[in-house]
Design brief:
Layout: H1 10-17, H2 21-28, H3 34-52, H4 59-68, H5 75-84, E1 125-135, E2 138-147, E3 152-159, H6 164-178, E4 185-188, H7 197-205, E5 209-212, H8 222-234, H9 244-259, H10 273-287
Parallel strand pairs: 1-4, 4-5
Antiparallel strand pairs: 1-2, 2-3
Helix pairs in contact: 4-5
């Protein structure tokens, strides 16, 4: 009645709807209930979390973030509120894996991962891959190194060419950041860059063991497939990059300020990679 009061008089609407005029005024002047106030506060928080997630969080991750921040609410309630206020995670469905196998690999390592994408501690097993990013009217190439323990991105490089130097640059960034012990496993597919002499030489220098799955078999490097799917469908497909530097800065910002620090993973009990590693370090300290 209130929403239509500028078009119809209150007396007429009260008669048609079978309610009393005094009852209507009593209702609109009534103070909001504690439940209504709580829901209003909650939806403001939900909108904030949703915006900070690049518009990608559905109710499970929003709920996990609310609980982390001390809000007492159920997951179904969060889902209902998001549905009522039309807060829906964006998701671009298109994603295609593209890898060029090496015709003459210099080094082909044994598959040491065998589709077991877990690790008992940080810096035990890294996975790596390359993907294409559209910039203006051409492609640029993104190389990523991911720690299987926490699904944290530990190295990245993005360049205009897909030469071996691209993957070495990403690997060197990871080595500089993490300083892994001898015996770390570096797993990839059989793409030409990952079976090259230059990568083998770099890995041997740092005591890294190269592991290779099959090219074109997504399950053999499923953790990297999952990461690139997330990156593309949550960020890249919603962008129109004009320059390499624009793409580099945007992807760097997404990975190091959101993905590693804040994005909650279902495989990590809805913790972010950094938080997962911090919890592990804390447990190690306590157990000593």
């Amino acid at each position: 009645m209130k929403n239509h009061s500028s078009y119809f008089c209150i007396d007429q609407m009260a008669t048609v709807l079978g309610v009393s005029k005094s009852g209507y005024y009593d209702f609109i002047n009534r103070f909001p209930s504690k439940r209504a106030i709580h829901n209003e506060e909650l939806i403001v928080k939900i909108r904030t979390i949703f915006a900070q997630s690049y518009g990608t969080y559905g109710s499970p991750r929003v709920h996990a973030e609310l609980i982390e921040q001390g809000y007492n609410c159920s997951r179904p309630k969060v889902a209902r509120l998001m549905q009522s206020y039309k807060i829906q995670a964006k998701m671009y469905k298109r994603f295609k894996k593209t890898t060029i196998p090496s015709e003459r690999p210099y080094y082909r390592g044994e598959d040491l991962v065998r589709q077991n994408f877990t690790a008992p501690a940080p810096n035990r097993t890294w996975v790596a891959d390359i993907s294409y990013i559209a910039v203006n009217t051409k492609w640029v190439y993104l190389s990523i190194v991911l720690d299987l323990f926490s699904r944290k991105v530990v190295g990245m490089a993005i360049e205009e060419t897909m030469k071996t130097g691209l993957v070495i640059k990403a690997l060197n960034a990871a080595i500089t950041l993490r300083k892994p012990a001898v015996g770390l496993v570096h797993h990839s597919d059989l793409g030409g860059q990952f079976t090259s002499h230059a990568l083998y030489k770099t890995a041997k220098k740092h005591g890294i063991i190269l592991s290779h799955g099959k090219t074109g078999v997504s399950y053999d490097n499923a953790a990297m497939e999952s990461f690139f799917h997330t990156l593309k469908t949550e960020l890249v497909y919603f962008r129109k990059y004009q320059t390499l530097e624009e793409a580099r800065l945007d992807i760097f910002n997404y990975i190091y300020t959101f993905y590693n620090r804040k994005r909650r993973h279902s495989t990590l009990q809805y913790k972010a990679p950094n938080q997962w590693e911090q919890n592990y370090k804390h447990l190690q300290t306590v157990s000593v």
